[in-house]
Amino acid sequence: MRVIDCPCGHRLEGADDDELFRLAREHVDRDHPEMQRSDEEVRERVAADAYDA
After folding, report:
1. Rounded Cα–Cα distance for residues 34 and 48 (Å)
2. 2 with 52: CB under 8 angstroms?
């Protein structure tokens, strides 16, 4: 399982980085729309900050 922790305290868990990207994209759009992150920026964050759990 892959995990990424949002600075807001929300923990996202997915089977792989692709699922984690999808979950992170949904989270940012729903909970942080003011951030206006592109898909590329979300993918970069997953690549840099996700870890195995």
Report:
1. 22
2. yes
What pTM does this model have? 0.92
Instruction: For the beta carbon of residue 41, count every other beta carbon within 10 angstroms.
Output: 12
How is 1-53 classified by DSSP, letter by letter? Answer: -EEEE-TTS-EEEESSHHHHHHHHHHHHHHH-GGG---HHHHHHHHHHH-EE-
Lookup result for tokens 């922790």: 5
Contact call for residues 32 and 49 (beta carbons, < 8 A): no
Express each pLDDT in 11-50 by its tens digit.
Answer: 999 999 999 999 999 999 999 999 999 999 999 999 999 9
Q: Sheet containing 11-14: which strands, arranged edge to edge? A: 11-14, 2-5, 51-52
